Every structure is written in C-alpha cells, then in structure tokens.
Amino acid sequence: MKHLSEQSAEFPPKQSSERADERIVAQSSKRPVEQPAILPRDGVLLGIDYGTKRVGIAVSDMYQKYASPLFNHQRQGRQADERFFLKLIPEYRPVGLVVGLPIHLSGDESEKSREARRFAAWLSGLFSLPADFQDERFSSFQAEQLMLQAELNARQRKARIDKLAAQILLQTFLDRRQQESHAIPVEDESHGARPPL
Question: Does residue 87 contact residue 71 with C-beta atoms inside 8 Å?
Fold first, then answer.
C-alpha cells in the first residue's frame, strides 16, 4: 500500500508534516445513535477505532475504495478529544464517519459498544457528520497478526495497533458497501415497454 504522501490526488491534502505509518496493511450525547446514517458514496470517510485510552483513526480515498491508517489519538479528556478533531476534520474534510462497534462473539452489543455509540453521537453532532458503524470484533486481532508477520516488536506494535485496527474496520466497511452496490439488481429495461406485435 502506498504511503499517504505518495497517494494520488484522490486523497485530500494534509497540511501537517506528520504522515501515517503505512508499512503494513464525560459526557457526550445522552442518547446513543440508535440507527446508522446513510453515508455518501463519494468523498472521504474517517474510520474510528474507539477506546477509552486511545482512538485509532483511518482515512479512505475520495472514491471510497481504499483505507489507510492515519493516527493514534491518546485520550486525555473530552476537551482534548475536541481539540484533536477540530484540527483533524478540516484537514481531511470527511463526508462521514465509520465507528467500530466492539460487540461480543455472540453478536450481542457490549458496554464498550454503547460507549462507542455515545462517542459517535458526540462526534457526529460536533461536526454535523453522518455516522455509521462496523463490527470490529476481529479488527484488533487482525492488526496484531499483521504486525507479528511484519516482525515488529512489542513497542512498535503498541504504537500502531489502534490506527491499524481503524484501517481494517474501515476497509471492511468499504468492501461491504462495494459488494452491496454490485448486488443491487438492475431494473428491467423492458418494463413498461410495448408488447411485440
């Protein structure tokens, strides 16, 4: 996968000098987001791997085909979260958010899922951006396996795990949307046509 600085103009420009490493693939809203929003199918999406200590961030290209790891945000309270996203959102100009839901293997939602929904509601409301959700049961495990295959040590893995998990959940979301769009049946062009004489 290409380095962000080597990506084509499909990605919006980033003004900060920091680049994502692509060596390998309080109180918010009182009500959680009950129903996922329908995200635009064109434009940048941000993937959010929610955690109480760190939040991993990934970004898609404008055509929503590829996801790239971006940042690990070390959380230090809601005000610090707000300052971080107030810098991030204008730089990448996303059209929507994809937030990971850490659900149980049974498929039931967990307390972490509800926290992630509340975080999504807060972030969505702060920037008036639609938010959707992606099952992230195995994203951290997959990220860990990728890093082990790359022979990264424990310190290197810890520095990358969250943004890599965000990339995996965002890429899963993009792939699923692509498959769903291809599965939509084409309307029968003969519908309404005059019968043959």
Answer: no
pLDDT category, 136, cuts 50, 70, 90?
confident
Strand positions, DSSP E, the chain: 45-49, 54-60, 67-74, 96-101, 131-135
DSSP state of 196: P
d(CA 137, CA 9): 33
Listed in sequence order, the residues at least 6 apart from 127 whose beta carbon sits closer than 8 Å to its beta carbon are: 85, 89
Measured distance CA(150)–CA(166) in Å, rounded? 18
Q: Quick check: 49 and 136 in contact, CB under 8 A?
A: yes
Residue with the bigger pLDDT between 96 and 148: it is 96
Return the structure tokens found at 44: 């940048």
What domains are defined for the chain? Answer: 40-182 (3.30.420.140)
